[in-house]
Amino acid sequence: EMAYLHVNGIDLYVEIYGEGTPLVCLHGNGEDHTTFSALGATLSKEFKIHAFDTRGHGRSTMVTAYHYADMAQDIAMALEELFEGPVDLLGFSDGGIIALFLAIWFPHLVRRMIICGANYHPYGIREEGRLAMQQEYDATGNPLMPLMLQEPWLTQEDLHRVSCPVWVVAGEYDIIEEAHTRELAAYLPNARLRIMEDADHSSYVVGSDQLADLCRSFFHESDQERGGIDRCA
Question: What is the pTM of this model?
Answer without folding.
Answer: 0.94
